[in-house]
Write a structure and sequence with these properties.
Length: about 80
């Protein structure tokens, strides 16, 4: 059995966004459009999935919300980029 990673920060780009926000809820846990709290304290929406085999538009976005980065560093959590 694989070990579960606790406290992971997922870097997502909300619909229409230009920066990644850190969230602690696994994005696949919620339907698209659900608002979840980001590390910066703002609510962000879970994006719509991209149909296979298209590349998600968010794949090229690497800029991270500075306030989310500050909180991420304070927590010293593992993280992963999550594109839909």
């Amino acid at each position: 059995m694989a070990a579960r990673r606790e406290g992971v920060v997922y870097w997502v780009v909300p619909p229409g966004g230009k920066v990644r926000h850190g969230i602690t809820d696994k994005p696949g846990k919620w339907p698209a459009g659900t608002e979840v709290a980001a590390l910066c304290g703002n609510d962000v929406k879970i994006p719509q999935p991209t149909p296979y085999p298209a590349t998600p538009r968010s794949a090229s976005i690497t800029t991270q919300c500075p306030d989310c980065v500050t909180e991420y560093r304070r927590r010293d959590s593992p993280s992963t980029v999550w594109d839909f």
